[in-house]
Amino acid sequence: MIGMTVRVISNPAAIGTLLAAGFVSLVALCVLPAHADDLQPICSDRPGRGTGACTVETGHWQVELGLWDTTFQHRAGITTDVTSAADPAIKYGVNEAIDVEASIAFYQALRIHGAGSSQTFSGVGDLFLHAKWNPDHASGDAAFSLVFDPFVKLPTASAGLGNGAAEGGLLIPMSWEIGGGWALQSTPEADVMLNEVGIGYHANLVDVIGLSRDLEGGFNLGGEIWTNQNIDPAGTMSQYSAGLTLAWQSDPDNQIDGGFAIGLNRQTPDLELYVGISRRF
Fold first, then answer.
1. Could you read off the pLDDT of 25-48 as tens digits, one per residue?
2. pLDDT class for 132, splitting at 50, 70, 90?
3. Between the CA of residue 49 and those of 67, 84, 183, 273, what are the distances in Å?
4. Which of 109, 126, 177, 187 supports an S-S bond with 208, CB 3.0-4.6 Å?
5. pLDDT digits over 113-125, tens only?
6. What is the Cα–Cα distance from 217 to 248, expressed in whole angstroms?
7. Which of 102, 98, 21 is nearest to 60 (CA)?
8. Residues 180, 182: Cα–Cα separation, whole Å
9. What is the pTM of this model?
10. Closest CA to 147 of 76, 99, 214, 85
11. What phi, psi does 61 have (nearest 5°)?
């Protein structure tokens, strides 16, 4: 398609309505006063690709909003950009051990361009539903935390942005406080994903190893290594990246964060940049 741009947007009016309603709801939440309870500082799954080994406190809501996330990949003269914005994860603490979570990107865009052609697909993303369970919530061991985090993905993404299949998996986030403000994290994950040919399912194995340190003024600086092994019958695709994260908690209920990741092989996007906020109510 020389000099042609193709845009596939599924029901733009409905997407616009959803975006507007979502932003109004999030703004309304953010102007509400935070709870005055004596709670631990907010524990968010942001930033980075790892998952927090924690659950939201009983009766509290938590919103973790990805304001902007974009990846870039350039191969053989073709550049692929993937961008998401207004990507909230909304959580509720059911009891001391369990929270439930839902997340969906209100806007995603995939752009493939180069060699005189350009394609853009945009719309909403898939819906993810999680339920975290902390089996050690009453153990009193402040040094080690472990959580079981099963999830399902429902195919709500607009045309060109998802594979149209229901999928799921299990994450087991772990965290060790090793002293001096340092912490070591790991998030092993096993997923069941649709085969590339569209029939049958296969395993997808992920892990994120992170090391972080609390700094003065409410800051936390971290580094992480990510690996993804997509074991499709058509051929395994291995991806690796390394990144840095920075988070600032202005008070126990609020966090601002950002970070980047660099691809370490040709199957991984060259660069990812992201920024977001979290708040507990």
1. 554 555 455 554 678 899 999 999
2. very high
3. 15, 15, 16, 12
4. 187
5. 988 888 999 999 9
6. 8
7. 98
8. 5
9. 0.86
10. 99
11. -100, 150
Other beta carbons within 10 Å of 49 = 22
> Is residue 187 a contact partner of residue 50, using CB atoms and an 8 Å limit?
yes
Overall domain count for the chain? 1
Q: What is the pLDDT of residues 162-217, one digit of tens each?
A: 999 999 999 999 999 999 999 999 999 999 999 999 999 999 999 999 999 999 99
Q: How confident is the model at residue 17 (pLDDT cuts 50, 70, 90)?
A: low
Cβ–Cβ contacts within 10 Å for residue 256, how many? 18
What pLDDT score was predicted for residue 48?
96
Label the pairing between strands 201-214 and 189-194: antiparallel
Calculate mean pLDDT across residues 41-64.
96
The CATH number given to whatever domain includes residue 42 is 2.40.160.40
In this predicted structure, what is the pLDDT of residue 128?
Answer: 98
Q: What is the DSSP string of the chain?
A: -TT-EEEEES-HHHHHHHHHHHHHHHHHHHHSPPP-S--PPP--S-SSSS--S--PPBT-EEEEEEEEEEEEEEETTEEEEEEEEEEEEEEEE-SSSEEEEEEE-SEEEEEEEETTEEEEEEE---EEEEEEE-TTTTS--SSEEE-BEEEEEE--PPTTTS-S--EEEEE--EEEEEETTEEEEE--EEEEEE-TTSSSEEEEEEEEEEEEEE-GGGEEEEEEEEEEEEEETTEEEEEEEEEEEEEEEEETTEEEEEEEEEESSTTS-SEEEEEEEEEE-
- Tally of CA atoms within 13 A in the half-sphere of 278 that contains its CB: 25
- pLDDT for res 136: 82
